[in-house]
Amino acid sequence: MLNNIVQNHLDFIVFICALLAERFLPLVSWYHPNHILSAIFSAISQRIYKKTDTKQYHYLAASMASTLILSTVLIIVVLLLQFAFYPELLSGLILYLCLENSSLNKKAIRIARLVKKNQKSTARELLKPLVAREVNALSSPGIIKAIMESVILRTARHYFVVIFIFLVLGPVAALAYRLITLIQQAWRSDIAPNSSFLMPLKLVLFIVEYIPIRLLALTIASLKASKKSMHYIKHYGRHFYQTNTGWLLSVCSASLGVQLGGPAIYNTQRFNKMRVGVERLPNADDLPQLLNTLNQTRFFWLLIIISVEIIKAVLVFKFA
Known about the structure:
Elements: H1 2-8, H2 10-24, H3 33-48, H4 55-83, H5 87-98, H6 102-116, H7 120-127, H8 140-169, H9 171-188, H10 199-223, H11 226-235, H12 243-256, E1 260-261, E2 264-266, E3 269-271, E4 275-276, H13 286-319
Antiparallel strand pairs: 1-4, 2-3
């Protein structure tokens, strides 16, 4: 009987194991496959991107390059899944490699501690790989705001959205999404965020993230300061330069009672992004509160997923 239960729910067991492995056994960033892939993607962009080229060329070059990367990797993965004796285990490995949360949280906590000790230079150096913006001139509140925004957006995209796509569309779709985020992240390191070269990827990510990001934002809003969160979404989120990002920053700003967003410098160019909230600037003590809010949201999502799986099992047993 135990063997039958394991066989019938092997995919869900592997899913839970992947979440636990990411939580307690995260890969160190310098030997994570994402590190190697990011270096490859960055080298590709340097070969095909020229600032003086036309918008049409940028659109075409970015679309073709990303399509070639995705098709190459996904064809190999699909073939491996087809010939694998236990494809569920390979799917779990794919999910484990796509998720990123625990290592990011540890780095964020370390940065907050350094800011508290007034070691801003070290904090900036640790922050630099985590954000696309320039950090050399950031003050203490600026460092905390930058790492908080990075934690919010990276946790949403590299954890919650990955899980949503994995459960709804499967491991191949989750891997494709994660590769697109890696490509965009690698290309943004040397290219201005408003460049036409990045527009195809931005459009794809916006469409893919539209539903899961809003579900995540509404979950956070339901846990804390729901009325204020909805007001912020209407006042700030819908008018932000990217509405998916705007929704997340709005609900987090409302729940924490701090100001997020605001101007930022990318590749020596200043971008006047909207400030979200009218409260005080964040400090180092706000980061643990943010992590606690995201952990509560993660636990709520996990509870819903387990409940759905239990209901499915009961229905299968009842009508078997």
